[in-house]
Input
Amino acid sequence: MLLTRKMASRLLQAMVRHSRAESQSWGEAMLREMDFVESDWSALRWALGSASALCKHFISQQLRTWFDKCRTEGMSLKGIVKRSPALLLGIAVAGSVLAMCVMGLLGLLDVARLDSAHRRLADRMLVVVIPETVYAASAAALWRHKKSVALGILTAGVILMTHAIIHYAMHG
Amino acid sequence: MGSQLRLSPQTIQVLDLFLEAPREWRYGYDISRDTGLKSGTLYPILMRLAEHKLLQTCWETIEAGTPPRHMYRLTADGVRSAKAHVQSYVVRRPQRAAFGGAKG
Output
């Protein structure tokens, strides 16, 4: 067996092994058919095509599960209104964290005489890096039991990050 | 299955091939060779047809010691639906050489 065919076979075997139970029999079918592909390069093309078919199947299954979940949990306007207090609480928590960081930065600038490079570093650390780290950690901790609050925190995190990127892109 | 089957020219091509001998079982590689569709195009079509219960699948052991091969043929519903779809496709696109253009 040439290296190309061996590589094709290994690739597809790995894909089949890691695919979901419902895709596995299809993967095995594709793998078996590869034995009947005449040339080694065609076998590699067959394996790559099959791997992409398994990926497509996986993605479509994931999307279907997600849409079904949305439908059963009611991602309607009513659902969003019901969740909004928790979302707002998350945003408020994130805002408080940011406010504390900004106050910490102002206090630091007041006490320490920093040159412009250190001032910029302190600014980035206290206004972006620390709040974003706190947001990510708290959202991860709250995700399972307080998903709406976690979503609120993440929303604030995304807004802050977007603002920071635009600000640093424009002002350096 | 609530969602509707998407009928791309390639799907029609596969259905048309099955309609040539509706009761005959076919192998994946043979379908690929006969239609000119690559595995990455063909298998998602076969999976969708099977999900919609239009395609029957089974494993065939040719001889002891060798792994079985997966085979496919249309179900009774599949034959009915395929005939309707292929016919309407030909009616909608009469000027084209029926399935010559679609390659995976």
